[in-house]
């Protein structure tokens, strides 16, 4: 999350806005903001209803569930439900016509989109005159 | 400042690779195997291909922020391009 914070000034100069979305309850989300000194909106998608519409939700298998519990991670407490479902990490750029302009989804939990790729997309959108 | 200047070079993937190597080196082999097997199984379900792709219409939504104020995607995109990133949580 801190990685995206670092590109925030450039992202804003390009007219963009950043929204982070997690299944955590607003209380836990506020803790995340404070812990990481984040300066962008972090939205609470309890029950993964929005993540579902982006096609990102999957059930956590029994084996991994036991591992998380072994680490002391109780998803039911963080997320306010006991579904043990999570969103895949995914990043999207949406333009003013509500069309997806960049989509990055990975099932490997240690991969993320390079923040520079987001800036490249925003520059391309600006250069085609898509940003007022 | 015109937004084009490379004020820094941040290589997130390198940092994450280092975290992964550290995880492999310090977590128990059973845990590493289970996590990697689970990631492979997930990829085989085709979930990545089914997710929203470039050119798709984005669904509009309204969600509460950290202080409970509702934020609507279409209101944000009306002002400019919106970058949305989904994450699992900060645990």
List its traits:
heterodimer; A: 132 residues; Glutaredoxin; two-stranded parallel sheet; two-stranded antiparallel sheet; globular; B: 12% strand
What does this structure look like?
The complex is a heterodimer of chains A (132) and B (91). Chain A is 42% helix and 20% strand. Chain A is α+β, with helices and mostly antiparallel strands. Chain A has a single domain, classed as Glutaredoxin (3-Layer(aba) Sandwich), CATH 3.40.30.10. In chain A, a hairpin with a 5-residue loop joins strand 5 and strand 6. Chain B has one domain. Chain B contains four helices and three strands; from the N terminus they run αααββαβ. Chain B has a two-stranded antiparallel sheet with strand order 1-2. Chain B is elongated and about 50 Å long.
Short account of what is shown:
The complex is a heterodimer of chains A (132) and B (91). Chain A has 132 residues and is of the alpha+beta class.
- The backbone outline of chain B, from C-alpha atoms, is elongated
CATH fold name of chain A, please? Glutaredoxin
Helix content of chain A: 40-55%
SSE succession of chain B = HHHEEHE
How many strands, what sense, and barrel or not for the largest sheet of chain B?
2 strands, antiparallel
CATH H-level superfamily of chain A: Glutaredoxin
Please report which band the strand proportion of chain A falls in: under 5%, 5-15%, 15-25%, 25-35%, 35-45% or over 45%: 15-25%
In DSSP terms (H or I, runs of 4 or more residues), the helix count of chain B works out at 4
**Oligomeric state as shown:** heterodimer
User: How many beta strands in the DSSP annotation of chain B?
Assistant: 3
What order do the helices and strands of chain A follow?
Answer: HEHEHEHHEEEH
Looking at the overall shape, the CATH architecture of chain A is 3-Layer(aba) Sandwich
